[in-house]
């Protein structure tokens, strides 16, 4: 039964055959009464079968059947579904149904135009996959990826911005980039909106995060244009440079500190040459040069490594840069220690004497070194002579010499060893290896013994020499300075080492020295009544 003009239908069907589109007609019972050749070539001949039997292999009318909606009163109905062609291949179809009416306007059937949308579906799936892949890549990049509209407002930004700025993505969208820039750099950032085609904006600016912290970012940005060349916005990358900037500043500070230390070395050398210590230093020029050159070489080497990586523009290995900076700081501290020892060795400060009980000063020092003793599980045997009275001392210098000797004892002692510290009043009888001559009849005596390894005789002969050390990172000036402090007090120091351990003995006069010309000293104002 023909539902429409047969000749017109045939011409329309042939036209759709040429266009590669499917056309069919159905009566009110959903039975196919016509199908063009192109549909038949794809699915076979459906004439005489219901559409749901032919396409879905079921006696039930499809839920989203566009023909049913036409019979229910709609003038046009569209649906899309996946079917299988005559060879079993999946194919996506878009069905557009319209009513066929008789002269009285009654719906007597439906015509259906069916289009193969498989390519479109595959393209959509490819685009979705590409977009998902792009978004995954964008989210995995450690930098902030962003897009701005023509007014400089964020139109897209990846989640890295939450880590860097501390704001959620949704809060940042449709807000201007300049709002997150430090005021002094906003004018510079505004020039992004003046970018020309092919131009790249590349600057380092200060950023303010959600907590008000000042950070630094390198921003690279390029204008984007539509096919007609009209500007549509800007796309860019924001890289966190805060740690790198801090490392650069630390490097500059280290360089400045190094220059300052070198200046001190020059001044110190000039002072040494002019001082009475010149001969002692001349004898150890090689040691001085070696001790100073070693940390300087290390600092210079690591500073140059950092400099090269900064200048190269390559990705910065933050952990490696922190390691380099730590080494530089450690070596500068080592250099400072050497310089402090040199200054102590050469300076001619007058002693600030006051009458004080040395046992009290020793007890204070023992409290300071308690934790170091525990670290090596050392036991301390202390016997402070009760007969000790106040004697003329410079408290700071005396504490320094005691601290030097105890520190040496701790370093020399084995784990679990014993350090003995005894004080008393005595007249020294053993003059072996002592420095200085003794003029007083009675002396305050302090002995500090450790049970570490024996010091060879050859080493004992050099132990008070400037820059002589057996330690890997020692300055070789600790005992030299200690000896100088003892001599400034008109005292004497000796050292012995045998299988039982090593003992340092110091004697300091109980009374004012007979010959004040041997050293420079003064009494503090509170003791101004004492002889000066």
From TrEMBL:
PROSITE patterns: HIS_KIN, PAC, PAS. Residues 130-194 form the PAS domain. It holds the Pfam family PAS. Residues 287-512 form the Histidine kinase domain. GO terms for biological process: regulation of DNA-templated transcription. It comes from the Bacteria. Keywords: ATP-binding, Kinase, Nucleotide-binding, Phosphoprotein, Transferase, Two-component regulatory system. CDD domains: HATPase, HisKA, PAS. GO terms for molecular function: ATP binding; phosphorelay sensor kinase activity. This is histidine kinase. Residues 76-129, 201-253 form the PAC domain. Its EC number is 2.7.13.3. It comes from Desulfomonile tiedjei. It catalyses: ATP + protein L-histidine = ADP + protein N-phospho-L-histidine.
